[in-house]
């Protein structure tokens, strides 16, 4: 059964997830519409949505000239978009094939970027330099077991006065049964330290299949996310919840501009994303 809780150590779960994400790279290169980046003004939908919020909380009101570290950058479409918004970018990911694809896209489109292969939970000691902004967005922290360790990396990467930004799938959404005919809770909202085991040959983009379908995720309630950031010493600046997603969580979701949402009659019943902006004093 998909989504059942299992006891598995972090390294074994991370290894399975890495194999799966390596497999996703060619599928996502085909599905992400990379040719659109040949237009030097093109930004990913994710960054297009995030920038108006992020710009409100960074020095000078824009990313222009700022050092930005993008955690869990995958094949770099959002990283390149941040660079096109004026940032000097460093993309961080644990997948070597993903970073090769990111570097190839950056070279093809003439975007300057630095790429670092490391685990996000070790980024504070393995990514050189310090940053004005640490950015992560959409589909990230469910892959991490220990959010206190994650928050510690963010603090280590930020220079004093630096800004952290995250937008991700809302944990209330992720507790729903994606295949049910109505909004029905199926999975735990609160975690107990165990991983959720999934077996799925498909990915959230494209029609291809992966050779390593087993993955492991961890549920993190909002209290855990915010608590980890606050315990690490960050100061909360902004919190928001959204009604749309950049991917189709459920077959019942309908396409809307730049993403997907529940049918209109249900749209106010459940949040789809949350956004947090915090600062290192």
UniProtKB/TrEMBL annotation:
Start and end residues of each Methyltransferase type domain: 71-164
Highest rank taxon of the organism: Bacteria
Gene3D superfamilies assigned to the protein according to its UniProt record, in alphabetical order: Vaccinia Virus protein VP39 (3.40.50.150)
Gene Ontology process terms (BP): methylation
InterPro entries: Methyltransf_12, SAM-dependent_MTases_sf
Molecular function as annotated in GO: 2-polyprenyl-6-hydroxyphenol methylase activity
Enzyme Commission code: 2.1.1.222
Keywords: Methyltransferase, Transferase, Ubiquinone
Short name of any one Pfam family annotated for the protein: Methyltransf_12
Primary enzyme class: transferase
Family matches, as PANTHER family: METHYLTRANSFERASE (PTHR43464), METHYLTRANSFERASE DOMAIN-CONTAINING PROTEIN (PTHR43464:SF82)
Protein name: Ubiquinone biosynthesis O-methyltransferase
Species classification: Bacteria, Bacillati, Actinomycetota, Actinomycetes, Micrococcales
């Amino acid at each position: 059964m998909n989504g059942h809780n299992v006891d598995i150590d972090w390294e074994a779960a991370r290894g399975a997830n890495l194999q799966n994400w390596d497999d996703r790279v060619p599928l996502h290169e085909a599905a992400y519409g990379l040719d659109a980046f040949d237009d030097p003004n093109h930004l990913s939908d994710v960054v297009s949505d995030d920038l108006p919020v992020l710009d409100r909380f960074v020095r000078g009101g824009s990313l222009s000239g700022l050092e930005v570290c993008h955690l869990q950058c995958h094949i770099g479409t959002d990283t390149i978009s941040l660079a096109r918004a004026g940032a000097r970018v460093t993309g961080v990911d644990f997948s070597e094939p993903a970073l090769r694809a990111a570097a190839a896209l950056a070279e093809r489109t003439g975007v300057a970027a630095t790429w670092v292969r490391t685990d996000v939970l070790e980024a504070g000691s393995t990514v050189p330099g310090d940053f004005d902004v640490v950015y992560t967005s959409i589909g990230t922290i469910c892959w991490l077991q220990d959010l206190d360790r994650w928050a510690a990396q963010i603090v280590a990467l930020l220079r004093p006065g630096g800004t952290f930004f995250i937008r991700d799938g809302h944990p209330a959404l992720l507790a729903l049964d994606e295949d049910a005919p109505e909004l029905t809770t199926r999975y735990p909202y609160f975690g107990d330290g165990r991983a959720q085991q999934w077996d799925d040959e498909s990915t959230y983009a494209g029609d291809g299949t992966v050779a390593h379908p087993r993955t492991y995720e961890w549920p993190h309630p909002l209290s855990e996310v915010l608590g980890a950031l606050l315990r690490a010493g960050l100061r909360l600046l902004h919190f928001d919840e959204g009604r749309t997603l950049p991917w189709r969580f459920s077959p019942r979701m309908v396409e809307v501009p730049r993403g997907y949402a529940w049918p209109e009659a249900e749209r106010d019943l459940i949040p789809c994303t949350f956004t947090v902006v915090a600062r290192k004093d």
